[in-house]
Amino acid sequence: MSPAITSPATASSAPIDNTALKPTDAGVKKPAKKQKAKQTGFKKNQKAKLALQRMHVFYKIKAHRSDDEYKDMTFPEQQKVLGKLWKASPENPRNNA
Known about the structure:
Number of strands: 0
């Protein structure tokens, strides 16, 4: 005779182990996120950078004109004269405030 076929319902009548179904923390961990630096004074730094860029443009335009009176001066002399002009210039953000 052939062996009797048992139904799956009768074969798994034993209680199911619930610990195997519970989620665990095992597995691949994601790296911790880097903390962003506090942006205190961000606008202040940005304003300073923009002012510096404007000053550089001012110096470049004034010092490198073709009909320039600063061409016969040495570099440190040029910087002194242009610095005085920059302080009084309307392009200087400090003069606008």
